[in-house]
């Protein structure tokens, strides 16, 4: 049995069709086991014997669209991928906060990995690494200035379009904890 998290892009929990109970209901209707949610931002953990991740992503996204009208993006990661990412300690000595906003941006399976990391010209963001196994950019941002977005996030959107989703490092840690429960 595989332990997965579906990272759903574009979830606004204030919308009636995007609440955790409705999202979990879709996953339960697909006969996944031990379905749970982490926070209210589109992180659904589940277990299944299916191992074809792209097929799972497509199946889940189709069900979300058909049942709830959610046309966003579904990105799946397996527990072992995220556990290895956490154990690699990509942010040594840093604590998540306003000046050190730690993030992981996950690329959909099939997205091309970068040949090289983007230039580090943005004073609001520092790209720590690209983790090939987890297919994730790891970055430290400074969001202490209200109303600004690091250029790094704009670069990600221009390069990968909607086939990405970003989570804080704290959220990634909570997801792994839930997968291990």
UniProtKB/TrEMBL annotation:
InterPro entries listed in its UniProt record: DUF1697
Signal sequence, renumbered to the chain: none
SUPFAM superfamilies (alphabetical): SP0830-like
Gene3D superfamilies found in the cross-reference section: SP0830-like domains
Domain of life (superkingdom): Bacteria
Protein name: DUF1697 domain-containing protein
Organism lineage string: Bacteria, Bacillati, Actinomycetota, Actinomycetes, Propionibacteriales
């Amino acid at each position: 049995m595989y332990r997965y998290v579906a990272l759903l892009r574009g979830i606004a929990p204030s919308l009636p069709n995007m609440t955790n109970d409705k999202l979990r209901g879709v996953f339960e209707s697909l006969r996944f086991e031990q379905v749970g949610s982490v926070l209210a931002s589109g992180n659904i953990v589940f277990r299944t014997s299916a191992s074809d991740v792209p097929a799972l992503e497509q199946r889940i996204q189709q069900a979300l669209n058909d049942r709830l009208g959610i046309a966003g993006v579904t990105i799946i990661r397996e527990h072992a991928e995220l556990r290895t990412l956490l154990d690699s300690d990509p942010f040594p000595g840093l604590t998540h906060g306003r000046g050190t906003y730690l993030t992981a941006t996950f690329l959909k399976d099939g997205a091309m990995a970068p040949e090289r990391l983007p230039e580090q010209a943005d004073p609001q963001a520092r790209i720590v690494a690209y983790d090939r196994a987890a297919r994730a950019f790891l970055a430290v941002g400074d969001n202490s200035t209200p109303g600004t977005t690091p250029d790094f996030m704009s670069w990600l959107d221009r390069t990968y379009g909607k086939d990405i989703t970003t989570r804080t490092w704290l959220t990634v840690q909570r997801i792994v904890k839930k997968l291990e429960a």
